[in-house]
Amino acid sequence: xxxxxxxxxxxxxxxxxxxxxxxxxxxxxxxxxxxxxxxxxxxxxxxxxxxxxxxxxxxxxxxxxxxxxxxxxxxxxxxxxxxxxxxxxxxxxxxxxxxxxxxxxxxxxxxxxxxxxxxxxxxxxxxxxxxxxxxxxxxxxxxxxxxxxxxxxxxxxxxxxxxxxxxxxxxxxxxxxxxxxxxxxxxxxxxxxxxxxxxxxxxxxxxxxxxxxxxxxxxxxxxxxxxxxxxxxxxxxxxxxxxxxxxxxxxxxxxxxxxxxxxxxxxxxxxxxxxxxxxxxxxxxxxxxxxxxxxxxxxxxxxxxxxxxxxxxxxxxxxxxxxxxxxxxxxxxxxxxxxxxxxxxxxxxxxxxxxxxxxxxxxxxxxxxxxxx
Length: 373
Ligand SMILES: [Zn+2]
Prior knowledge:
β3 (about 150-155), α7 and β4 form a beta-alpha-beta unit. Helices cover about 55% and strands about 5% of the residues.
């Protein structure tokens, strides 16, 4: 993993580079940032830079033997701790390191949810148990294989239970020599304040719309319209944007689906409505949620188009043409209720509501609202 593979984060990357270039690396760092900010891949890029045999002022070379090992997460001095679902066979991260490597290599921006989906443990509680701290101590008692730093990356340290957290604190208070801890946290406010005070924080921010669109165009060769649609649904979370792209077949067009829905809402036709509902009942919860998010974006842009600054409208291309025709139906009278309806239905879908009943109610309700004079 190289710094240039991390989307945005110019400030954080600059700080990390400076630390290595000036050989002033603190013994404990906290990479804090929301999901999709890239703090986990950045931790790997940082480790790779530290271990690289031929580093440049811009970071690791990407091709030496150490770079090779780090990029596969198999460098012997690089250790990982991450949340697990405890079971008879799984007591600590060690038992799942192979799965973790695979998940990360496939999707370096993976979220805790993605990780638990990989483990088919969606309904279990992610935890870093106390056994893990004993493992950490054991690993740190070895001398390093390659004679330099040992690096311990702790992903989601907020999932440590109290006992594990206290043990980690003791280690951070008297850090072993030549060891660097990188805590990679999405909820740093849940860490013990005493741990917080022992680490140097490097904040990671949500990616900007432009950064996400550009990265999608470069890395996934999508056109600018698809990039923008995806970015709009991802809310500054690059990992989510990638998931949306890779889990979606290209034929699914948010716009087409929304247009069909709105046509039904404008002029209710029972047979066509039932057909639309049948099709959309089976697309899966994630895509159903995306439908509501997309609708909310269109409502917002319609309002902006009608009453605000037309330059602030985000839709473009084909979508903008649709908006020009659709916007007049969104008025001060129905905007708020429509937004509330779409938000509520997003929430219900998330909690496993029956999509057929929900969509039928929504078509009828939208029909009433959209024809409100
Ligand atoms: Zn290298």
